[in-house]
């Protein structure tokens, strides 16, 4: 039985995926040569490719810039009060809404910044918040 289980596990995890994995690896190495990736430890490579999964939300707040707003404007204070009361999953959803990803890029949370801008519309009550994900700008009506 042990020999059967060992052979079956080897087939499922190694032999059955050998050709698709080799094809994937060949394509991956064509775009990302292995010699460049060898400088990273596995955990560092994961962060470079996937981004950070641990967040310092206060640091995020500190790195924000404002357009047509000041840090102490009532709308901004209300935004941060509500934001910090959100559960972790909702904060990640906000990050995905803002930047297109629920993770902070590998260059580090201390360098991740976004902007909150007033869209300056005639009737702000008729406008929902929106985001420019490429520039990481949150358009927040007053």
UniProtKB/TrEMBL annotation:
**One MF term in GO for this entry?**
ligase activity
Among Pfam families, the record links this protein to: HECT (PF00632)
> Active site: which residues?
134 (glycyl thioester intermediate)
Source organism, top-level taxon: Eukaryota
Q: Which ranges does the record mark as transmembrane?
A: none
Flavoprotein as a keyword of this entry, yes or no, is no
Q: What is this protein called?
A: HECT-type E3 ubiquitin transferase
Q: Per UniProt, what is the name of the gene that codes for the protein in this document? A: Herc4
